[in-house]
């Protein structure tokens, strides 16, 4: 796949209207981008701080997030700071979470509002307090933690059952007991979460099922493999 640059340019033109400290740059023969100052404001609308950023379409926009770079040298290029060390772009969400968000449809404006600004607020918290709030692990373990949050369980065997349920594309009868073992009706227990996760492709679900099964077998997280290549 390749990025939809026309879509990126149309959305960037709308984005800079709402965020005038950002500039949309188009140079013939080059990848378009947005750069400038991202202002973080408090509830009263007063600026708390600002980050210098650059945002450009990745190779498969809008099926995956645009790439965001902090260009002011304020954040170390270090995965412990949620910056990918190979490209220097920000790690904004786990791969399954990012896939599900994009599958519902994103625009640059919604991406900045609901993903980028919260990400930099977390960075600000790390700067001031020394740790992130509600931080997930990196790589495959972070993917599993995402599913644990979605299914509201820390039991990986239940996560596997529910991923398999999503993979089956078949729902139990509405009055059936939930497969998680809670004794609650499926429709009032895990049905909403399974329906959400079922938006992932079979290939993606197989990938995460393998990670989860390998983790249970080996009691360690297997080496990271990029899901974005699917």
Automatic annotation (TrEMBL):
Instruction: Identify the InterPro entries for this entry.
Output: SEC_C_motif
Q: Which Pfam families does the record cross-reference, listed alphabetically?
A: SEC-C
User: What is the name attached to this protein's record?
Assistant: SEC-C domain-containing protein
**Lineage of producing organism:** Bacteria, Pseudomonadati, Bacteroidota, Chitinophagia, Chitinophagales
